[in-house]
Amino acid sequence: MSVARDLAEVALAVDFNKLPDDIARHSKHLLIDAFACIVGGFNSPTGRICRGFAHEMQGPAQATILGENTRVPLRGAILANQGMMRFLDYNDTVAISLVAGDVAGGHPSGSLPTAIAVSELVGASGKAFLEALVAGYQVYGCMLEALTISLEARGFHHGSLHPYVGAAIAGRLMGLNAEQIANAMGIAGSLSVGLDILDATGEEYVMTKNIADGVLSEMGLFACQLAAKGFTGPERIIEGIKGFGHTILGNSEGYLPKSLGDRWFISRVEIKNVPAESTTLGHLEATTTLVRNHDLSPDDIDKITIRTNKRAVVHTGDLVKKYPRNKESADHSSYFLTAMAVLHGDITPGIYEESNFTDPRVRSLIDRVELVHGPEFDANLPAAEVRIRTRDGRELYQRIDPKDLKGDPSNPMSDEDLRKKFLLCAKGKLPESQVDKIIDRCLEIEHADQFSSVLPLLTVK
Question: pTM (2 decimals)?
């Protein structure tokens, strides 16, 4: 047996009828969340380019570009839906504290565009889709929790887990057995890895950030299509010589993902309450709380001091992102995000208008923000504390812990919380009644004979 075979068995073992009620419901919430983010990114530059490119691809029309309700080749649908879903940096997230402030994390939903497309291709039921979703997240968790050093620390993009997740999801939906899925993981894993220049401290971010997870996941589907025909890949892709552990992590023996047993990794996955990099969520909540509670205006503020985890300070506080020039850098800029929190009293999709990047009021506030590393926060992501010194001499203080954040696993969103998020994403694109229909259908999707029956409801008017 190989690690890839073990992961394949993990994926095939998921049975929706045996899932705890909270896990089943969270799986449906994650689907709703992904749909909300896709609608939110529909008219984005990334969304428009990827949708246009998908229509230029040659091949049979097999899967739907969401929002358009038009069908294109599989690869095109996955690309377009991924680009839209990731644009706002609002899709789900998970972060695990390691040592010395290192963080292993990413976005498990990066494989959902693959799951959506393959479900449509094979005519999967709603229950089969949810089983594939949970299976993919479980494989993601097996691999993520086994890390003792982050992929980013080794120079690789966190999405480099998605070829394996994509293979697990696609393989399950296509009816592959464990041997075939293990071969698919070997094919995909040996041919695809992401470089972390897309998410690197000190680098300006670009549109490629928005498509990385989905493109890497789609390689898992490609590999399953080959494996279904008897094509083989290195089953020891994880633990073998010059495989994932040896090459990517620099450790040929220590990286051995294993089953999580009765634990469901999906329960660790957060649904974001604001569209911003995950380790900033604590200090942004603290800032908006102070602004609202004390009715602060930009002119009231002399200085904002943020004390938070190392990842947020280093990753979202580097000089390249201090005065962001594009959306991709702005959602990873603690400076910009804090300025917008003061100006608007909240962080919503609307803050990323290009005019805000050069607004003198925003730049003035940015210059009043200081980021300080608090080592005590490194193991309690994304906890933070904020002190605001006002020009009339007041010192205002607010601390936020994970339990204070709606959407954190310790404080999960309700159906109504998720509805409010969807409505923010759908503003100007879908009427409220249509959002309600989408949510209602998703909450009962396990009863649908065809998962794809929900997709036309996402058509943007």
Answer: 0.97
